[in-house]
Amino acid sequence: MYSNILVPIDLAHGDIGEHILKLARQVGGPDAKITIVTVMDDIPAFVASQIPEEVVKMHHDDVRDSLVALVKSTGTGATVAIRKGNPGTVILDEAEKIGADAIILGSHRPDYRDYLMGSTASRVVRHAQCSVIVDRSMA
Predict the structure, then answer these.
(1) Most CB within 10 Å of its CB: which of 7, 11, 12, 26?
(2) Residues 65, 73 contacting (CB under 8 angstroms)
(3) Domain of residue 42, residue span
């Protein structure tokens, strides 16, 4: 079993987050520390300058509220982290930062874009310093 699990969640992918979070609890057992991370895209400076600060904060708070509700609904007791940047890079950095011994993430079925650019899941699998479990059961 794993004792410190990172679970990247993309709120845009609906029920996958709930499924992956429950899977993390099963894989880690009742005593595992689970951290959810969601990665928000950086807003280009020329766009950010046109968005009121309170709107950005409201969006950040909405994301946090959604993640906290997800944790509550699954009863997993996970810790929530919100980061900005490139998802693949941020997930790898966060795993290292918290000393994760596993990353559990969901993945969609690849399409033509993934063959040209690569998916977040494939980047994480290639570069992670810990075990990576990619679940496609919801894809």
Answers:
(1) 7
(2) no
(3) 4-135
* Residue 89 structure tokens: 């890079």
Length of the chain: 139
Note whether 6 and 90 are within 8 A (CB). no
Q: What is the pTM of this model?
A: 0.89
Q: Would you say the C-alpha torsion 90, 92, 97, 102 has a positive or negative sign?
A: positive
Count of domains forming the chain:
1
Q: Which residues pair with 8 in a beta bridge?
A: 37
Model pLDDT for residues 28-87, shown as the tens digit of each residue: 999 999 999 999 988 888 888 888 889 889 999 999 999 999 999 999 999 999 999 999
Spatial distance between the Cα atoms of 63 and 69, rounded to a whole number of angstroms: 10
Structure tokens at 62: 């909405």
Distance CA 25, CA 91 (A): 19
3-state secondary structure of 101: coil
| CA atoms of 89 and 128, how far apart (whole Å) | 10
Would you say 10 and 109 are in contact if contact means Cβ atoms under 8 Å apart?
Answer: no
Are residues 83 and 37 in contact, defined by beta-carbon separation less than 8 angstroms? yes
